[in-house]
Amino acid sequence: MFTIDEYTGVRGIYDFKCKGCGKVFELIVAMGTDTVNYLNCCRVGVAEKIYSPPTAGDATMIDNERFSDAMGINPNQLPAFMKQFPGSEYNSEGQLKIKNREHKKLEMRRRGYYD
Ligand SMILES: [Zn+2]
Fold this sequence. Notes:
This protein has 3 helices and 6 strands, in the order ββββαβαβα. By secondary structure, it is α+β, with helices and mostly antiparallel strands. It folds into 2 domains: about 1-50, no CATH class; about 55-115, no CATH class.
């Protein structure tokens, strides 16, 4: 969850892979970050950025409609975000609706993130 103030700064949204179990998730990090301490998954607590282009299977997954936690918000702030990013859709948990990869890039750019 992020407040609207936290949407500033040069950061990107990247896919990271847990070194413990291999689970993949999105994180917002400063550009150039390769490894993060991630304690919300396994005891291993370390995740690495995924550089390799997605395989055909992954691409299918990424192009499916989904909801982004990384660009999610506190639902209480929905009115403020709707004003700042008209057209963006959030679910009741404050996760941002992502229609496909191109749409994700668009929503990232609107928030000042880089691909
Ligand atoms: Zn894990």
